[in-house]
Structures are given as C-alpha cells and as structure tokens.
Amino acid sequence: MQRKTIFIIIILSLLLANLAFSSSEKISVTRAADVTNDQPTLNFPDSITLRATLKSDAPITSVVLEYGTGELTCGTVLAKAFPQYTPATSVDVEWIWEMKQSGSLPPGTSLWWRWRYTDENGVESLSEKKTVTWIDSKHNWQTLTSGFINLHWYSGDQSFAQDLLNAAELGLERLEVDAGLQPDAPIHLYIYGNTEDMRDAILYEPGWTGGLAYPGHNIVIIGISERDIEWGRSTIAHELTHVLVGHLTFSCLGDVPTWLNEGLAVYGEGELDENSKTQLNEAIGNDELLTLRSLSGGFSEVSSKAHLSYSQSYSVVKFLIETYGQDQVNSLLIALRDGTTIDGALLKVYGFDVEGLEDAWRDAIGATPQLASAQPTAQPTPTFVPTYVPFAGTSLDITPTPYTIPTSSADQESPSVTDSFPPFPMTVVLGTLCCCLIFLLLGGAGIWFFISSQKRKGDNNETEA
Length: 465
Fold this sequence. Notes:
Helix content: 40-55%
Radius of gyration: 33 Å
Shape: extended
Largest sheet: 6 strands, mixed
CATH superfamily of the largest domain: Neutral Protease Domain 2
Distance between the termini: 26 Å
Strand content: 15-25%
C-alpha cells in the first residue's frame, strides 16, 4: 500500500510537470498573422506611412513594426518601430517613417516591412514581409536594360536613353580593362530630366550636386538634360566607378582615401577635359599642387581647389595604373577593404607610403619635389564628395554629410528589451503549478523518509526480540 502511494505521487508529479512545460510551449507559439489593409502611403521624398489592421483571438498586447532596406551592411540590420494602439482583438496601427529625421533614401530603394504582435495568451503572430519601391510617382518612368545596367528615365526620347545606356556599358568595359573593376549585381541608374528635378528627390544635399552614387544600394541618380548629354556620358562612368569601388572595398574595417576613390572615378570617365588639364598644368608649373595627404579626406569647399583636387587625384591614379598595372590597384583596394591603413596598404603593394607615392608621382610629371615638414601632416576625416553639376565656376558652399542608416522616428519610445513575456494571468497560473509540483515532490520525499524510518524501527524491534 505504501509503495502504491509513492507511485501515485510520482505519477502526479510527472503529469504536473508535463502540464507546466506544455503551458510554456504555448506561450512561445508563432503563427501566421491575420493582417488586412496592409498598404503603404508614399509622400516622396519626405515620408512613408505604414498602416494595417491586426486581428487575433485574444486582445493584442504588443505590436512591433519591423522594417528596413536592401542596403549592403556589415551585419543584419533590423529597425523596429512601436506604434500606439488600444489593446483589442482587432487594432488599427499606423507609423510614419520621417525621412527628415532618418536621412533621405535614394530613389529606387526597395523598402520592406512586416508586423509582429502578441496577444494576452502569449501567442505571437508574424505577417509576411512586404516590399515597395521608394520612387517619385509623378514622373512617367521608363526602363532600358542591358547586362548589369538598368537605366530608368522619363525625359527625352528612347535614343537619348540608349545613348546614356551605351555610355554606361562602355564605362563598365573601360573600368574592367583599366582598373579590374567588375559589377557583381545589377546597378540601377535613375536619370532625372535636369539637376533641379534630381535635387527635389533628395534631402540635405548641396545645390551644386549633379550626381550621386549609393554603392550600398547599387543605385546612381543623375540630373541630365538633353543639352548636357556629353557631360552626362562622363558622369555616368564616374558614378559607376564609385559603385564598383564601394562594393569591392566594402567592410567595417577599412576606408578608401578620397584621392583614390575620386581619382578612380575621374579615370573611369576617360581623359581630363581641356580646362582641367590647363588648371593641373598651371598648378604643376607654379608649384601649387596640393599634398596627397591633404586629399585623403574631404576636398576643399573652394571651387578652384576642389576642381584641382579632382584633376590631381586623377593624375595620381593614372600614374599608379600606367606605371604598375591595374592588378596592383586591385590589390591596394583589397588591402584597404581588409582594414589596412593607406600607408600600410601602399607599402604592402608598392613598397612606399603616401609621401613616397607623392615623391614618385611628382618626379614622373616633372613637378617640384615636396618639401619635408617638421610638423606632422593633418589627416582630415574622409567625407563624401558628390559630383558637380555641368556648369563651370559653381560655388562649393557646403560639404554634405554621409547617408545615415534609417532608424525609428526619434519621438517614438522604443523599449530596450524586445523579447516577449507571458501576460500576468498566465504567469500566475504557471507559478502556481510550479509551486504545487515542488510541494508534491517535497511531500513525496517526506513520506518516503517517514516510511523508511518506520521500517528501520520495525527491524530493530525484531532484532531485540
């Protein structure tokens, strides 16, 4: 009888334990979401509004909007927003992604989002991921495609677009032969009818911007009118170079100095124009060349110095390619990608640092040797340099800031912990079950101890008798 009692206690304990674990499993269940009216509203270029109606069997107690872009990043980037709502079995939620707070996205960016919500029983629901293209719908966009290039335009006839597409293909061919750069994914070119239209499509860019490359998105935007077709051809090659260099050197470890990045981009255009050649030759003759170290960061805001910076960077890159070959340039870019400093990368590939390169380059072009300085040369922080509009003498008023990865709106309060926890009633039930289980286990152990003690006393009495 005593053994039967102990056996029953053990069975009951196991059943309670199984019930407790079963309840825990129910809390972590994720199922397909019941979502309707899940449509975005684009207010280009300022904001995008995401709305939906979420439904569940029990009142919804937690709602998280997960969203992001297809941008190339060092790791998985998952942005979260926490819309306001009143708990119910059916809730209407809305969240506005303000580009003025997060930074403007390039036209053509693919945006994605999904809804994750939990009801009071701990059941989590996750909607399917949806996408939309961030683009100005007021223009009637058309598309021409060839190889890795997708050219989108709305102003000008098809021959105009074909001309630019041919220029892009020639640019890619030249970059592969001369610099060993090749695309690894489709590149989208968005051609605006003029620079004014292009600047209306982006935020926080200076008024002299004529073209922008976004390597992380594989997107290039340029304002090209039919009268600026020649400038447009060279600018396409310029911006494509930025995309290819950005992809080849992408990492979270290193950085490409501006003189190398912009020098390669200008080299990708072909030869310098006559005005740039004249300015560079005058700087060589008058000993007014800028130090290569000073061109590692942002170019000057003075228009004449900025133009010289481009031309001089081109001349240095041309010297490297024509003297040592394109394979060495590739090795230099890969060393920078792997986190090596520019001095370390140059020493590894060519056997000289930045000053050594400048000495060799000056000697090759017949310039006056640079004077040794007793003071260390300042190394400015690299900044992004957009492409000039096709008008000479444009004032370089400001230096733009780099693109910022979008995050939730600043006025939204984001919980620091995003894991789901069971609601309070379920917590009470689960805690009670655990307490009962512990009580039964302790009771069973006490009964076993009591029975064992009584048995030992009986054995002792039989021995004494």
